Amino acid sequence: MNLNLSLAPLIALVAGILILVMPRLLNYIVAVYLIVIGLIGLFGGGALHLK
Asked: Domain for residue 38, yes or no?
């Protein structure tokens, strides 16, 4: 059985739950998410998948 888990949807799910629980985290979560996506784009790690 192969389980391919994409990283972006997992991060989005965790961020969404955290925002629901603690709405004050929204600015920090968005900032960190954008920084991570920017770094992944710059360094060419666009195909990050967990196996």
From this structure: yes
Q: Which residues contact 4 (CB under 8 A, 6 or more apart)?
A: 49, 50, 51
pLDDT in tens, 12-37: 788 888 888 888 888 888 888 888 88
Query: Is residue 51 a part of any domain in this protein?
Result: no
Quick one: angle between helices 7-21 and 26-42, nearest 10?
Answer: 170
Look up the pTM and report it.
0.53
Q: Indicate whether 2 belongs to any domain.
A: no
Does residue 1 belong to any structural domain of this protein?
Answer: no
